[in-house]
Design brief:
This protein is an alpha+beta fold. It contains 12 helices and 14 strands. Helices cover 37% and strands 24% of the residues. The structure holds flavin-adenine dinucleotide.
């Protein structure tokens, strides 16, 4: 590992001031589960590392007027343990549960996961399926964008050099929306996703049709994507096994999976169809359980 200067930021403003001072030669450190691996191997190490892990304003999970606010520094383990997330966004808990092992989930943050912007990230699809927003902080401004627009390419977000990811917000109207996250890897533990899928939906029980279905896919395109054609196909369509299978096939056609040493593109497409159908079925089951007064 190459030597670097180290600063511990007191809060996000301090971190932003340090970023402004040290510019492109600096990099933020949250849980370090990705960055430390990079620092050990990369030939171009940052000159300055700014540790944000003590910044209290980047922590915490709270209900606000806008929805559920998840600080960028919230760890995967904290998401899993939080009763509000368990009740209102259980698919996010399921996604957090599949990330690495206990140590990775204890250190790794949801903000770090999103900023790394690897196509196989697990928290991205679960949050995109709930139409999550992200707040980006600069020294003099805050801006909020839909999470799906935060992803600019593989390992590339829309963050500018002097900005940081401040928080993630699940809009209030989507809290409790029935959803499901599924991940397929080559082994049960510590596996990166070959494909991951999250689906969410409301049900109009009078007409028995899908309302506002969302399908988000990971590891099958340069970034996490929404299968918007499959969503449009399902909107206000009768809930049947055939409709869910067809949505899976449409979603498979929307992805751009690659062939690599872990799986062929064709195999990944087949997985998308199957996992999308299952995610929709499980989200419907959660909707039904919720209606019948179960845990959902
Ligand atoms: C053994 C192992 C297994 C893993 N398994 C999985 C897995 O199954 N699924 C999965 O999705 N990921 C997995 N990961 C990846 C990693 O754990 C996650 O991406 C983690 O959430 C990253 O968060 P962090 O806080 O550790 O980020 P860090 O390593 O601290 O930072 C990562 C990057 O994000 C930047 N950054 C961090 N926070 C902010 C912020 N608030 N604003 C702006 N920039 C920021 C940093 O500058 C750095 O470039 C695994 C990693 C390891 C080591």
């Amino acid at each position: 590992m190459k030597a670097f200067e180290f600063f511990a930021a007191r809060d996000s403003r301090h971190a932003l001031a340090l970023l402004a001072e040290h510019g492109a030669s600096s990099q933020l450190l949250a849980g370090g589960t990705d960055l430390l691996v990079e620092l050990k191997s990369a030939s171009h190490a940052p000159k300055v590392v700014i540790d944000i892990s003590r910044a209290e304003d980047l922590k915490g999970i709270v209900l606000t007027e806008q929805g559920l606010r998840i600080g960028a520094l919230v760890t995967h383990a904290e998401l899993m343990r939080c009763p509000i997330v368990q009740e209102m966004a259980p698919a996010l808990v399921d996604a957090a549960h599949t990330i690495g092992a206990v140590q990775t989930r204890n250190r790794g943050t949801v903000g770090g996961n999103l900023v790394t912007c690897v196509p196989s990230m697990d928290s991205g699809p679960a949050l995109v399926a709930l139409d999550a927003l992200v707040t980006i902080a600069g020294l003099d401004s805050h801006r909020q964008v839909p999470l799906i627009e935060f992803f600019a390419g593989p390992r590339k977000t829309i963050l500018k050099p002097r900005e940081l990811l401040f928080e993630i917000v699940i809009p209030g109207k989507n809290l409790g929306k029935p959803a499901e996250f599924l991940k397929f890897g080559l082994r049960k533990g510590q596996a990166l996703a070959l494909v991951n899928v999250a689906a969410s939906l409301w049900v109009d029980w009078g007409e028995h049709v899908f309302v506002e279905p969302r399908i988000a896919l990971g590891a099958v395109a340069p970034t996490v994507i929404r299968a918007t054609r499959a969503e449009a196909y399902l909107e206000e369509r009768a809930i049947t096994p055939d409709a869910m299978a067809e949505a899976g096939r449409i979603a498979a056609g929307e992805a751009k999976p690659i062939s690599d040493f872990r799986a062929s593109a064709d195999y990944r497409r087949e997985l998308i169809a199957v996992l999308t159908r299952r995610a929709l079925e499980n989200a419907c089951a959660r909707a039904k359980a919720k209606r019948e007064g179960g845990s959902g």
